[in-house]
Amino acid sequence: MKQVLLAGCGKMGSAMLEGWISRLDDPMHFTVVDPALAGDDHPLKKSFGQAGNVTLLAQLDDSTPAPDLVVLAVKPQMMAEALPPLTRLARPDTVWLSIAAGISMPWLQAAIAPDAAVIRTMPNTPSAIGRGVTAIIASAAVPADMDALAERMLGVICRVVRLKDEADMDAVTAVSGSGPAYVFLMREALEQAALKAGLAPELASVLAAETMAGSVALMQESDQSPGQLRVNVTSPGGTTQAALDVLMAEDGLMALLEDAVMAARNRSKALGN
User: Looking at domain 179-271, which CATH architecture does it have?
Assistant: First the structure.
């Protein structure tokens, strides 16, 4: 039985644990450590407090088994503080799986051990409902069976894509890691525009939400490109064309999104330095 230590049980950590327990067939024991588990009212204690294959801890203790796999689900700014007690517990052959934005594999190896087996990934927030995506890349020290295990574990919560170059992870973070926030902002903006156009708040909210949800569903089910779907709904000289003339102007939505993605990518790079 594999021993998995999950460090951090915020929204993403909790979502991963729930997915692993409900959908993974691999025999595993999960030890979850997070200071938030000190109280009795944490949701994980209600869900898994009596589960035989889950141990919930506010901090590591002498009885904690050495892990085969450590999943680092702490915030990037807390990583330096979180690692020392984990490295003291781990074995030389422990594999480390990090979901922290901007924390590179060389940074982790410098903090753990120069030859540490490290896997880096970046699930986005829709993974909490099984609809996300993540990119994954492993260091040369990761055994093939553990690399495959990590991919299976991630695959139960989201779609997994492989990277060949870790340098691409900053752009991945900017597009898919931060991307849900861009979509949420678009939903907010559409509702705000509906209000400005004179619609009542409840109607504006329903129209904006269902239009966004339906459009995404149509893109996923259609074999046509997003560009073609846009053309399909745009009559020359019509209302949609009038709106797109604004959104697709030289300084419009396309340019703004490019600038936003570049800003996020640059911030991811800075976090890794």
Answer: Orthogonal Bundle (1.10)
Two structure tokens written together for 238: 């019509």
The rounded mean pLDDT for the chain is 92
CA angle 89, 34, 158 (to 5 degrees): 95
- The string of pLDDT tens digits covering residues 83-96 is 999 999 999 999 99
Cα dihedral 182, 186, 192, 194 in deg (nearest 10): 180
Tokens of 54: 């889950």
Strand bridging mode 117-121 / 2-7: unpaired
> What's CA 2's distance to the chain center, in Å?
24
CA 151, CA 162: separation in Å to the nearest integer? 9
* Tokens coding 265: 């990518």
Question: Tokens 């019509």, residue?
Answer: 238
Domain residue ranges in the chain: 2-172, 179-271
CATH architecture of 2-172: 3-Layer(aba) Sandwich (3.40)
DSSP tag of 181: H
The DSSP line for 1-52 is -EEEEEE--SHHHHHHHHHHHHH--S-EEEEEE-GGGGSS--HHHHHHTT-T
- How does strand 69-72 pair with strand 132-138? unpaired
Indicate the pairing of strand 54-57 with strand 28-33.
parallel
pTM of the model: 0.87
Distances (CA, A) of 254 to 181, 193, 228, 273: 16, 18, 16, 29
Residue 33's DSSP bridge partners are: 7, 57
Predicted confidence (pLDDT) per residue in 38-65, tens digit: 877 777 777 776 667 888 888 998 888 9
